[in-house]
Amino acid sequence: MPPVTWAVKHHHEQQQRECEAAGTAWRHSGHGFTTGQGRPIDPTNLTRALTTLLRKAHLRRFRFHDHRDSQQ
């Protein structure tokens, strides 16, 4: 199984567990990536989390949009 396929499958399984744990608080937003309650991820929070991870990994900062059409 290609790594991307595995990662998406793993993410979906994790999201199902979050849905079950959230119970009636879960909101089916139709998004593939959500908060632990099924709501869309706020772009500002996502950017903040990415920046933190990049800093901890000693990698330079980049924007998601810069890489959306990347073939790498």
From TrEMBL:
The keyword ATP-binding does not apply. Keywords: DNA recombination. One of its GO terms (biological process) is DNA integration. InterPro entries: DNA_brk_join_enz (IPR011010), Integrase-like_cat_sf (IPR013762). Residues 23-44 are annotated as: Disordered. One of its GO terms (molecular function) is DNA binding. It comes from the Bacteria. This is Uncharacterized protein. It comes from Streptomyces jeddahensis.
